């Protein structure tokens, strides 16, 4: 599947846009999104945007269309086949996650639909669960549209940053800037992840809980945030950062 998507990307601009729509559709499709390595695929597509081979706004529009269609297909499946889905053995593997999603939809439907779009494990389940619960369209539609507008550029962003970094002139950046930029990006991501774990501590258990129990997150979360802020501020003083910012700006105004 991933190799086929990569082949589509290299064909033409139209096929690259189709690939964006296809990946976002599959990432949003009920259960399929749990199995698809969409992050890797979208990083490749984002790199095309960052290097100027693919326009940001056409890719954004294609991503919006793909995830909107995927969500509504999932919502329709949940609404139409709610009985068989509850009895489906394959879905039982995700019963705990599905039960939590349904509970969250009961309590805070609009917030859950909007935030769930940005959380990997729940993204392909929330529209399905909303349909299974027969959540009214008037409650599902507004947060769904907002999420589908905001999610594609965020999903493309790592690839965009990588594509822009590749275009930084080699002779000028002395070979160090890209590595420093990568290190700063990893520290910022790690700080954000630790803060997310800190905020969610005690609410769920997964593979990382044994390594990061709540008592450890009480100091690891704030420390990660401090390191992330320091990395972001520090990279701004690199001599090549103005060149990087200029190239990044070109992506948004092209």
TrEMBL record:
Transmembrane segment boundaries: 12-36, 56-79, 179-199, 219-237
Highest taxon of the lineage: Bacteria
Membrane topology: Multi-pass membrane protein
UniProt entry keywords in alphabetical sequence: Cell membrane, Membrane, Transmembrane, Transmembrane helix
Span of domain VTT: 36-159
One cellular component (GO) term of this entry: plasma membrane
Coiled-coil segments: none
Major subcellular site: membrane
Localization of this protein: Cell membrane
Keyword hit for Cell membrane: yes
Family statement drawn from the similarity comment of this UniProt entry: Belongs to the DedA family.
Protein name: DedA family protein
Organism: Pantoea deleyi
């Amino acid at each position: 599947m991933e190799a086929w998507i990569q082949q589509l990307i290299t064909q033409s601009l139209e096929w690259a846009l189709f690939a964006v729509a296809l990946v976002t559709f599959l990432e949003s499709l009920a259960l399929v999104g749990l199995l698809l390595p969409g992050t890797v695929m979208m990083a490749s597509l984002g790199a095309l945007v960052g290097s100027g081979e693919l326009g940001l706004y056409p890719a954004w529009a294609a991503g919006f269309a793909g995830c909107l269609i995927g969500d509504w297909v999932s919502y329709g499946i949940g609404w139409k086949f709610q009985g068989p889905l509850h009895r489906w053995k394959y879905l039982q593997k995700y019963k705990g996650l599905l039960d939590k999603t349904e509970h969250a939809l009961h309590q805070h439907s609009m917030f859950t639909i909007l935030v769930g779009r940005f959380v990997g494990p729940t993204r392909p389940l929330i529209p399905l669960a909303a349909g299974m619960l027969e959540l009214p369209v008037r409650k599902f539609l507004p947060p769904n549209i907002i999420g589908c507008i905001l999610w594609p550029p965020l999903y493309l962003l790592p690839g965009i940053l990588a594509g822009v970094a590749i275009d930084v002139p080699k002779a000028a950046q002395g070979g160090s800037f890209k590595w420093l930029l990568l290190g700063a990006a990893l520290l910022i991501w790690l700080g954000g992840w630790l803060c997310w774990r800190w905020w969610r501590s005690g609410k769920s258990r997964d593979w990382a809980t044994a390594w990061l129990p709540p008592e450890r997150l009480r100091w690891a979360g704030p420390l990660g945030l401090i390191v992330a802020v320091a990395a972001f501020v520090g990279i701004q003083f690199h001599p090549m950062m103005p060149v990087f910012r200029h190239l990044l700006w070109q992506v948004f105004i092209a």
